[in-house]
Amino acid sequence: TQAFSLKNDGLYAENVNIESLAKEYGTPLYIYSRSEFENRWLAFDSAFGSQPHLVCYAVKTNSNIAVLNVLAKLGAGFDIVSLGELERVLKAGGDPKKVVFSGVAKQSIEIRRALEVGIRCFNLESHAELDRIQAVAQEMDLIANISIRVNPDVDAKTHPYISTGLKDNKFGVDITTAPELYADASACSHINPIGIDCHIGSQLTEITPFVDALERVLALKNTLSEMGIDIHHLDLGGGLGIQYTDETPPAIKDYIQALLTKLNDTSIEVIIEPGRAIAGNAGVLVTEVEYLKPTEHKNFAIIDAAMNDLIRPALYQAYQEIVSVVPRTDGHEAQWDLVGPVCETGDFLGKDRMLNLKAGDLLAVKSAGAYGFTMSSNYNTRPRAAEVMVKGDQAWLIRPRETYEDLMGSEVIIQD
Ligand code: LLP
């Protein structure tokens, strides 16, 4: 089954009619294809063949516990960046032994909980963080497995906000100074350095930067082994891009194959942390046209989804395809800006789109499965959208639309 396809009576999620889902659950509405999540994770997993490996889905991409549970059932590992994400993985039935913990600012309380449940590895990003993990592990009388996130300084050729492998950003440590930090780590009583970690950026559409990064990581592994530090795994991060419109990212199996070729039969374990490449095209955001507002200069279609529901267009000028859920046979196409109800000029989901629209029509914003709901907010006191998961001809509500009680219920008026 295709995740999303146009049939005679409109757009479908697998075998479920999207218009009927919108009628049942309202809009804005996130709809996910369970098969797409499964197939994409399995594509990564199977591409490794006999190479020892672990595919750790990046939880930040789409962290609904139904999504995490679907992947956990396949045997997925998880890349987390906060205690909240760890609790989600545990609640979803994920195996803590398959969890890697990334992020520049792990708090003591987060480290403690991660050690308590026995995660696989901390990806640490600074000397100060090494000291803190050592202190917490010592206090708990446990050994913390760590890898150090290095910056291989390769240009990922992606948007500057999501490029992370270069020298001049807050992530990781300079690969040339990493050996010193490894030496310090192995001198710690409660730290066990087991891996090398890197993540060079997101939405990469070429294989070369990944292979270049791996080459530098392999050189570091040799340096460390000369120092007597044995590395058991290489974590190559996430970053594989998807097709939003006319990008041509490499296929999953070609990307993994290129890594395996570079590894040249080294039987070291490889961890990867894909997010977008699994979730991105597994979701759409469905929205209804509230008003048409043609003006002398521009045609605005005011829709009921906004930047608080999907911030990528506003934040990164990201382009996501927008299609009619039930294409019209009457009327004609015109050029529309699709803008939301939020009081910001940057509140748009698409600009200059050729669409045949009337008020009340449903639109689907495609490729919204990654960094959609997870980046949403309550700005303008807008309840966050409902989320539905589909498989075959079944649909499950996996998160109801927020209520105003959800938004305000815990706030307190000062009594004086
Ligand atoms: N591992 C680490 C350490 C990361 O920081 C990220 C994403 C991933 C894995 C997953 O990367 P992916 O496979 O999804 O490219 N909000 C932006 C993307 C930010 C990516 C942050 N890090 C967007 O909407 O495009």
From TrEMBL:
Binding positions (pyridoxal 5'-phosphate): 239, 273-276, 371
Lyase keyword on record: yes
Protein origin, superkingdom: Bacteria
Pfam families in the cross-refs: Orn_Arg_deC_N, Orn_DAP_Arg_deC
Keywords on record: Amino-acid biosynthesis, Decarboxylase, Lyase, Lysine biosynthesis, Pyridoxal phosphate
In-chain residues carrying the UniProt-annotated modification N6-(pyridoxal phosphate)lysine: 60
Domain Orn/DAP/Arg decarboxylase 2 C-terminal, residue spans: 32-369
Keyword flag Lipid biosynthesis: no
Enzyme class: lyase
Residues of the Orn/DAP/Arg decarboxylase 2 N-terminal domain: 35-279
Cofactor: pyridoxal 5'-phosphate
Catalytic activity: meso-2,6-diaminopimelate + H(+) = L-lysine + CO2
Pathway assigned in UniProt: Amino-acid biosynthesis; L-lysine biosynthesis via DAP pathway; L-lysine from DL-2,6-diaminopimelate: step 1/1
Function: Specifically catalyzes the decarboxylation of meso-diaminopimelate (meso-DAP) to L-lysine.
Record family assignment: Belongs to the Orn/Lys/Arg decarboxylase class-II family. LysA subfamily.
Subunit structure comment from the entry: Homodimer.
Protein name stated in the entry: Diaminopimelate decarboxylase
Species of origin: Thiomicrorhabdus lithotrophica
Lineage: Bacteria, Pseudomonadati, Pseudomonadota, Gammaproteobacteria, Thiotrichales
